[in-house]
Amino acid sequence: MASVQVLSPPNPQGVPQSAAFPLTLRLPDWNRQEWTRRALALHFPDYKDLAAWVEFRDASVRLAREFLPLTSRQILGDFFSPEGTPALVLENLPVDPVLPPIPNNGMRPASKQTVSEAVITGILCQWGEVLSFCNEKDGSPVHEVTPIAGMETLQSNAGRVRFGFHSDNAFLPSWFRQQGILLYGLLNQNTATTMVTAEQILAAASPGLAATLAQPTFRHACPASYSFAGTSVHSAPCPILWRDERGLARVSAASSSIDPMTPEAASALEGLRKLLEGLEPARVVVSPGTALLFKDDRVLHGRDAVNGPRWLQRAYFTDSLDLLREVTSSDARAFSFDARALLSPRNRL
């Protein structure tokens, strides 16, 4: 079997450099063709039937193990490790040979083939778990990311306006949130996803700004894409930018929906927004057959304005769902959880 082509060298420290961030891999044509053919035989299940979901997940993982070359599996394994590079791009992956019209309601068309879902699930579930919330996209493990009529001006995955740098689900306690995000291209007319790393932000911030952003004096509001949005749902007080016990820079920022709790925090938030405007982001056009994976607490991501057709798929991932299943008394196979329940005071500490 042909080996994967590495297009740019690893950069484990996560400091963006034009030639190295994000690391990009390309799947050989033969692997893509055979993976596509085999994935077409799978059926995307009713994901609320957990037995059917597990059967699909396991079949998808078997295909990914067969068709991802050894080199790419090793690099992916490094990416999913706690200190792995913060972002990774995989190119030339399988795409459904025939796509239905772009869904205008943000939900998966019933007539869609199952190739992209099998690839997404197969990649993520080798090293972790897919995570979703029943309050968004009906709890689907794979989200359709398309502009939705009537929501074009919102700062959300359904909008068309430029989407500023942000983290997803920053309103949830960190131990319940996804660790990372995978974006998968189906149709995309040159709309770039933009990224800056926490290390990049820290390097540009003054010591005073960095110190204030590391204080738990900010709250994040629930995003517009959730079914209970607009009902005054906020996170507990938390920092925006800090270093963890490993010395890795971390970031969590809901962008347009951050509430500073002190005058100092308000000033720091304004300083962060100005700083972000001056940084040079990495830009990735998630074109058909391209997957962009990134750690959501080590990268802020955004998006250009959407001026043409765009249909991506998104999946959240984490290394374990055991705590979520425990605090929600869920089935051992569950992957979708009620975000509102996770905000109860007993789950915040």
**Helix tally?**
8
CATH class of the domain at 5-162 and 172-195 and 283-336: Alpha Beta
Outline type: globular
N-to-C order of helices and strands: EEHHHEHEEEEEHHEEEEHEEEEHE
Give average pLDDT, whole number. 90
Low-confidence stretches: 1-19
Tell me the major beta sheet. 9 strands, mixed
Q: Structural class per helix/strand content?
A: alpha+beta
Q: Kindly estimate the percentage of residues that lie in beta strands according to DSSP.
A: 15-25%
Query: CATH homologous superfamily of the domain at 5-162 and 172-195 and 283-336 - what is it?
Result: Clavaminate synthase-like
Cα-atom radius of gyration: 19 Å
Helix content: 25-40%
Task: Give the name of the CATH architecture of the domain at 5-162 and 172-195 and 283-336.
Answer: 4-Layer Sandwich
For the termini, the CA-CA separation is 49 Å
What is the strand tally? Answer: 17
CATH topology heading of the domain at 5-162 and 172-195 and 283-336: Double-stranded beta-helix
